[in-house]
Write a structure and sequence with these properties.
This protein is mainly alpha-helical. It has helices spanning about 10-15, 25-30, 35-55, 65-75, 80-90, 90-105, 125-145, 150-175; strands at about 110, 120-125. β1 and β2 form a beta hairpin.
């Protein structure tokens, strides 16, 4: 039997039932679970980025749900509240509360649709646009820190690979009739 060692993946279990895993067995178990590790890694990276960005945004008084709405509006200013709720995968009532707070803070305005006055379109105010610029600057600086150690080619390759993964997920979602 090969020399035993403490497998990092099973450190907490090694005291229980994996006392003497060999390097080969540990590598095999890790290779068998690569897809689960990848899913957790992508989730953790996304979650950690949101948490750090939340902390950067805290001095502005803008919450995660608010900056999320502002970010979408920066790309689709003037969209209807219903369409925005669909894009964000939020209920209309939940989004209504967020927009109420953004409107009270002076970041957005609700305007009636020119064709159907029952429909409200959400528009960024000048204050909202300034906040977007600040968010973009903070996001850029954060991205630079996150990507330290990656050269330009590696950054472009990472973005390209993530876009492939995203396209595949969108395709799978569509093919399986998964709604937002």
């Amino acid at each position: 039997m090969a020399d035993s060692f403490e497998c990092p993946r099973f450190r907490f279990l090694s005291r229980l039932r994996f006392k003497h895993l060999t390097i080969d067995k540990c590598v095999k178990v890790m290779e068998e679970n690569w897809d689960q590790r990848l899913g957790f890694l992508m989730h953790d990276v996304s979650r950690l980025r949101r948490v750090v960005f939340d902390a950067l945004m805290k001095p502005t008084g803008v919450t995660r749900s608010q900056w999320w709405v502002l970010a979408y509006l920066s790309r689709h200013d003037g969209m209807t509240q219903s369409d925005l709720a669909s894009m964000l995968e939020l209920g209309k009532a939940a989004l209504g509360g967020i927009i109420d707070r953004l409107e009270k803070s002076g970041f957005v305005l609700r305007n009636p649709d020119p064709v159907d006055r029952r429909i409200k379109r959400i528009h960024l105010t000048s204050s909202g646009k300034l906040t977007i610029k600040e968010m973009q600057s903070l996001s850029h600086d954060l991205s630079e820190e996150i990507l330290q150690g990656l050269d330009e080619q590696e950054r472009l390759h990472l973005a390209k690979m993530l876009n492939v993964v995203k396209r595949n997920l969108v395709s799978i979602k569509k093919e399986n009739g998964v709604s937002s």
